Records
---
Amino acid sequence: MRYQHQRFPFVRPPDLNGRPTRAPVLIVGAGPVGLALAVDLALRGVKSVLLDDGDTVSVGSRAICWSKRTLEIFDRLGVASRMVAKGVTWRVGRLFHRDKEVYNFDLLPEPGHKHPAFINLQQYYVEEYLIDRARDFPELIDLRFKSKLVDIERANDGVTADVETPEGHYRLEADWLVACDGVRSTVRGLLGLGFVGRTFEERFLITDIKMKADFPSERWFWFEPPFHSGQSALLHKQPDDVYRIDLQLGPEADPEVERRPENVRPRIEAIVGDRPFEIDWISVYTFQCRRLERFVHGRVVFAGDSAHIVSPFGARGGNGGIQDVDNLAWKLAAIAKSEASESLIATYDEERIRGADENILNSARSTSFMTPKSQMERIFREEALAMAATEPFARRLVNSGRLSLPCLLDRLSLQSEDDPGFLGGLAPGSPCLDAPIIDNLGNRAWLLNEILGHFLVLSFGHPVDVPHGVAQLTVVDGPADCADGHTRVQDADGLIAQRYGGIPGAAYLLRPDQHVAARFVKPTAEKIATAIERVLGLEAA
């Protein structure tokens, strides 16, 4: 590994000195998902204890592709600018069949977005930046390395965890426990929970190599390339002159044999030619498309790979985990502050199981196209690839991994029905779209940076009546005069009107996770209050 791993020391917790802790939220696993959850909770004023049995960030680049929606979430958490500065930005993908390019695609063809379609950045950098960010909240985030969860006792009002450290065991009480401890989740094992779904037979080799090369910042995918006959291959560029290469091996491949450097090197040389390179990291994996039946088990909640796993093609694993956090943190915070009914946590199950199922479906379809299991599937793939070169409709049939997109939450329980007559724009359950704005000081900025972790009424043309304490942002066509105390922004390039379909006097109610909760043609404070109560599970109160 060329990355210099910092070792984080064990710090003796007060629990070992006879001062037991009760945490509002106990998080197990300090990967990107667990760290992001701790930061998100801290931004909402909720304390957490974060346990990890290791003492450093991830070994190997692991997750590398971070989508625009995930970057928008990371922006709210305060780490996106650092990620984008370090990462490799890309938006173009090229698809090859044998030695010919079939077609290419642009993942962000329109202007007016703060963040790129994707960046490539090794997981260890993401964890490093999140740990640095967590250090900004010493009173709210208690990050405990070399602390291994070994047992759990559950009760109606919380959990008690048994924690093993280099200096002894202690017991830690918490109102909620969130398992962010990955595919081999200790928490899932302690609760005796298993995954449902499919494990595919095909094996794939992931290799990160360090080399000087002039490959562009694009996603290149091959079906049956001449350098790896009959199989598939993927090439991605990462920071620090590191390249990710994925190679299909077939179901009979022996993982131990295939990951030996002396066997990996000839495969890489066949791709990159005679230029010098160094092997940085090697892993062999099988496709899995599985999840827990439920993500919420009393006061224990699962997020990220502890809850669901998919194949790497499509970048839906890490991005899906961060979107779990985006959905969960505000709900846990609202419950912890007695602002919401505890029943709100059930909607995490409802909404993120939809997201997981969407990711699993796309991942399974990718697997079937990439590794045909029958003669008919193979014929279909050959014909789709042949037509895609000249027929745009056929390109939708070619599947090298449907890349991560945010999940729509339409027609689920937290969304309110539209006022009659609201046409166009973003339907309830949609994630908000970014757009350039001009603030009252005349500075260009971004709409999503004004929607930061709380309920917000987005009104158009002029302010509307809102319930006491609810923030409002009004989009206007002319200068953003805020002299009367109402916050206004100017639609800098007309893209807010285009994307939101906002007519004068209309309004959106936006959730704390930047999703649309309701839309109103004729908003009133009473209508908005009712929609908020629906979101928080307080309708019957």
---
Amino acid sequence: MDEPLPLWMIFPVIFAALYLTHWSLLRLPYFWDEAGYYIPAAWDFFRTGSLIPLTTISNAHPPLPSLYLALWWKVCGFHPEVTREAILIVASVGLLAVWRLAMKLNGSPLVAFWTLVLTGLYPIWFAQSTLAHADIFAAAATLWGLVYALPDRPQSMSGGRLTRRALWPAALWFSVAVLAKETAIITPLALAAYELGAALRKPRAVRLESYRKAAWYCVCLVPLAGWYAYHYAKTGFLFGNPEFLRYNATSTMEPLRIAAAFAHRLLHLFAHMNMFVPVLCTAASMLLDPVENEAGRTHPRISFTAQSRIYALLLVNALAFSVLGGALLTRYLLPMYPLILLVAVSTFQRRVRYWHFMAAFSAVAFVVALFINPPYGFAPEDNLTYAHVIRLHQAAIRQLTARYPGSTVLTAWPVSDELTKPELGYVKAPWDVYRLEDFTAAQIAKAAEDPSGYSTALVFSTKEEPAVLPFHLNSPKVESEYFGLHQDMSAQAIARQLHGDLVWERPDELEWAALIRFHRSVEAELKSQPDPWR
């Protein structure tokens, strides 16, 4: 593999670029699934050495992210900035794998450069590069596994075949991936199934090679099984608590739900956050003949053997995550986006004379998507909306602290955790909280039946649902039943129904937050708690 620079020189450049572009995000406190599981799980291990979370419900996620974060906290201190810098290192390792994979499959440093840049700028990857979710760990390790698992281009020394020397690193990286997140098992199992299917089309004398590859890809089942055995021995649950298993697996098996989720996954892979720009440019490029240089040669392509495996991985991941996972989060597909972009950039180079303009146009589209939201519902962690949400919650909590210290606060998750867990970075001491699931009419009616349970409300938008498009991807009934679509009441309506005064409100694009004060005769006292930040 003819690389212009060694990997150890490329990595610090990648990290420096990520650090500079994420500078304004590094001190943000934790949010959403960070606050709900990953930080509490790592915090529990950091304090107690327990691999099983104590302050949050165990959902059987493997412990590698907790071990990694706890190590950094031990060395550098427990601060959000330390966490986010540690995640930047993981994201940089993933981008280094993107470079290496592009060099292996295409061989052009320019293709590798643009694939790396587009991956780093793609809003979902960009946002996840500082968020403490297991998915960035699994994505980085999976991409390194693919570096060794996908066949070389035909011009290479191995002639497009995998050597035995390349299989054990693939098995090692896939094992790291599944110890970061269990769903990373989908990729190596898909490759194993592909090899077994390919073996049926080969002469009996050469089938052994395919069987050997499949066996190496399945090695990662061993450490994952070991983790589940340990989890079962400690908790009595194999795949996490029953409610988690029901929400993410058993309740998702209905055919209509799977079909609707698959439509979402196709959108997520090929259109979401302006991914449609390089995808459509690729489709247009395929209508052109390959560009020839002065010697009559064309640029190299990704081999058909590698392309077929890439397309199989995209299909299997789209199908698998149409069944697994109650929420259709795009970060589950994180290692698939570099594969799409690699195929796109390779096609640009091969078929478009001034292909750099096409790659640059895609980069601009991704930068736009970082700041401008799509005209349909999406998760705030898909672009920089998550930072707006965090800052909006911080502003609301500052108002709450200044105006009504010691009050009992009616609110919903994730603010309920932000107020009760000082380690998340929003408060110095925990508040008393009256918890709701959301701010729908049913939940507000429930709160109205217990007016003595709270004296202040911190209400906010729990869903990003732009009203630009006059339709949903699926019917509202399907979206509501299977994917949690709901309509929050406005702050004014909540104040009226609960007979309170709206004392503060702030909108922020698709988000809003507000404080409502109730004049109750009983006021909770602020409990004195030690400051965990000292």
